[in-house]
Design brief:
By secondary structure, the chain is of the alpha/beta class. It has eight helices and ten strands. It is globular. Homodimer. Belongs to the type III pantothenate kinase family.
Length: 256
């Protein structure tokens, strides 16, 4: 058994592997430094704070592979024995630039190795990102913009009277021409975001008509459901997979 840890912008994402098989995944809040030191020494989960839930097994495997976008959090895990921190240089994609996020690179590598290149990965998380590689595994490039929740939060926090919209409250598509402030915010953000996703996808298929697309991230299901309603032909060609980074880590281990 071995453990993969993705340190994201707001939470920790975990995956337990048995060989190359992904056994289970779960999320936790960031762990206090004292708890990390305890885990490093004993590997037991018995004394974890009650709000932090780990699935079976009751102890952590000694092998831990980390991919992180938060350097300060990465440093806290350096005391864990047999830890491996993945760096951008270890990912076999060609033409990558030094500031490319390790999460974007790993997700693209995992998607491409699983379903084939050319591959475009859409990450619908805190930021909405597009990252693509061609058939020869050369990075084509991508784009970054604020994600759904971040756009709502910015309007709620940076204006005097606009309400805060929570993504958890979203179910059906709002009316495009709204008659309330809350629905007007939902309409503006959602329809513009979906139109942008559609535009990027169509531009991708102009470059690579047989190019594949995978979507991940916390808002993946919500945005995919909206795309099914508005653009069913596009949605039918998307692969929804939340664990692309873990597939990237596993593919990287097998590549090495």
């Amino acid at each position: 058994m071995w453990l993969a840890l993705e340190i994201g912008n707001t939470r920790l994402h975990w995956a337990l592997f048995i060989g190359a098989k992904l056994d289970c995944t779960w999320d936790t809040e960031y762990l206090p430094e004292s708890v990390i030191q305890q885990l490093a020494q004993s590997h037991t989960l018995a004394d974890l704070p009650p709000e932090i839930s780990f699935p079976a097994p009751c102890s952590l495997p000694p092998l831990l592979t980390i991919a992180s976008v938060v350097p300060s959090q990465t440093a806290l895990w350096q005391t864990y024995p047999h830890v491996r921190v993945i760096t951008l240089e270890q990912i076999p994609l060609k033409n990558i630039y030094p500031t490319l996020g390790i999460d974007r690179a790993l997700a693209l590598w995992g998607a491409g190795k699983t379903w084939g290149f050319p591959m475009l990965v859409i990450d619908a998380g805190t930021a909405l990102t597009f990252t693509a590689a061609d058939a020869n595994q050369y990075l084509v490039g991508g784009a970054i913009l604020p994600g759904l929740g971040l756009q709502f939060a910015t309007l709620g926090q940076k204006t005097g009277q606009l309400p805060q919209i929570e993504t958890e409250s979203l179910v059906s598509l709002p009316p495009r021409f709204a008659l309330s402030t809350a629905e007007a915010i939902q309409s503006g953000v959602i329809y513009t975001l979906l139109a942008g996703i559609k535009d990027f996808i169509e531009a991708w298929w102009q470059l690579y008509p047989e190019g594949k697309i995978a979507i991940k991230g916390g808002d993946r299901t919500l945005l995919f459901n909206y795309l099914q309603i508005l653009y069913p032909a596009i949605a039918s060609r998307l692969t929804v997979e939340p664990n692309l980074i873990f597939w990237g880590i596993a593919a990287l281990k097998s590549h090495v």
